[in-house]
Automatic annotation (TrEMBL):
Keywords: Lipid-binding. It comes from the Bacteria. InterPro entries: DegV, DegV_C, DegV_domain_contain. Pfam families: DegV. This is EDD domain protein, DegV family. The keyword Hydrolase does not apply. The keyword Ion transport does not apply. One of its GO terms (molecular function) is lipid binding. PANTHER family: DEGV DOMAIN-CONTAINING PROTEIN DR_1986-RELATED, FATTY ACID-BINDING PROTEIN TM_1468. SUPFAM superfamilies: DAK1/DegV-like (SSF82549).
Length: 286
């Protein structure tokens, strides 16, 4: 029996976690002098109320090692082999915390994977791992598949402002100032686990359209597409984008997920992201 574990940095519709028996270890958000666990005692409305009204940005951190230890101990005592998939080690200490917990259980069969991703592309990998486990794949087969998929999954996103990324240390204040002063909308991407600028466009509308173009370009010559649409407080925009991509690309799967507080702390409201993974068709591929 293989059980899949991830962290709340993986964004999926909540019903999928339950349907596939995926265990989610919550990321930590500190705000107003209190510590909260994402998805347990902090809802999005309270989080955004604080984000709008407080002069102090919330801070985020990885789950305590003890949280991973308890999950791993319980599942291993049930006889499970564990595949634990976590957000990029370049952006968070979550992977390191999971590895530390694994070392505390030397008799357990635990495989910890750095997805080098976050949000909906991490969710795409988690879904694949859980479905492979249900289909009877071995741990070795699942880990190898995860390593392949992470290298061939794209994630582009645009934020309403770089202010929150700058405050959180993810981009420089100079970059944020230039973007805001010039009213440029940088399209960002994940590359080898890190956030990088991909290109800049002039307006939010053009940036959102360009995100869809980038997914179309990636999808050319590929099949069995899986697409994730991430947003921060943009449900109608995200659903409209998902509808357009579904009609045009006919993906094998497409889902919409709102980012949780740990990611939204750095993204701020008004963010939109698109992730895609597809198998290269014979004679095709980008």
């Amino acid at each position: 029996m293989i059980r899949v574990v991830t962290d709340s940095g993986a964004h999926l519709p909540p019903a999928l976690f339950e349907e596939l028996g995926i265990t989610v270890v919550p990321l930590v958000v500190n705000m107003g002098g209190q510590t909260y666990y994402e998805g347990e005692d902090l809802d999005l409305e309270a989080f955004y109320d604080y984000l709008r009204s407080s002069p102090t940005l919330p801070t985020t951190s990885q789950p305590p090692v003890g949280r991973f230890y308890e999950v791993y101990r319980r599942l291993s005592e049930e006889g499970a082999t564990i595949i634990s998939l976590h957000l990029s080690s370049a952006l968070s200490g979550t992977y390191a915390a999971a590895v530390a917990a694994r070392e505390m259980l030397p008799g357990a069969d635990i495989h910890v994977v750095d997805t080098q991703l976050i949000s909906v592309p991490q969710g795409i990998l988690v879904l694949e791992a859980a479905r492979m486990a249900r289909a009877g794949a071995t741990a070795k087969e699942i880990v190898e598949r995860m390593e392949f998929m992470r290298a061939h999954t794209v994630f582009y996103f645009v934020l309403d402002t770089l202010e929150y990324l700058a405050k959180g240390g993810r981009v420089s204040h100079i970059q944020a100032l230039m973007g805001n002063v010039l009213q440029l909308k940088p399209i960002l991407k994940l590359h080898e686990g890190r956030i990088e600028a991909h290109e800049r466009v002039r307006t939010t509308q053009r940036a959102r359209a360009r995100l869809q173009e980038l997914i179309r370009e990636y999808a050319r010559g590929r099949k069995d597409l899986r697409i994730g649409v991430m947003h921060t407080r943009l449900p109608e925009v995200a659903e409209a984008v998902a509808r357009a991509l579904r009609e045009e690309l006919r993906p094998a799967e497409i889902f919409v997920a709102e980012a949780g507080p740990a990611v939204a702390t750095h993204a701020g409201p008004g963010g939109l992201g698109l992730a895609c993974y597809g198998e290269e068709a014979e004679g095709g591929g980008a």
